[in-house]
Amino acid sequence: MTEQELIELGFNREDEFGIDCSDDQGNEWIEDAFYYYSLDLVQGLDLITGPSDEECAKNNEWYVELFDTYPTVRFTDAQEVKTLIELIKSRIVADVSTMSTEQLIDSVLESDDSDE
Questions:
Q1: Higher confidence at residue 104 or residue 113?
Q2: 3 state SS of 21
Q3: What is the spatial distance between Cα 71 and Cα 3, in angstroms, rounded to a whole number?
């Protein structure tokens, strides 16, 4: 998928600037700056792209992964990512502990309407 498609799906660009690195032999260097895209769907479930300095991103062929999973789950098609996002967002159950009475009533009425 293209960088523009990521932006249209609501992903946010995250810039990483030069990072100081070292190895076990005491060698030190600064990694080049890069960026990636991320999208927080719900608490604990995030989507993330590979870094901009990977060959696929340089060719504007980005991929999206579920963050911090094993095994890795990867998507390369924007339509599949869009479908995943829509599916997850459509299944979010309201957190009633943070809702006002009016919001809670509206939420219950909406769920009754969708059951019909």
A1: 104
A2: strand
A3: 25
pTM for the structure as a whole: 0.70
18, 78, 16: which is closest to 47 by C-alpha? 78
Q: Which domain holds residue 25?
A: 3-115
- List CB contacts of 8: < 8 A, sequence separation 6 or more: none
User: What's the CA gap between 102 and 91, in Å, rounded?
Assistant: 21
* pLDDT tens, residue by residue, 39-71: 999 889 999 999 998 988 889 999 999 999 999
Number of domain units in the chain: 1
Q: How many CB atoms sit inside 10 A of residue 9's CB?
A: 17
Rg (CA), the chain: 19
Take residue 31 and report the two structure tokens written for it.
């990694």
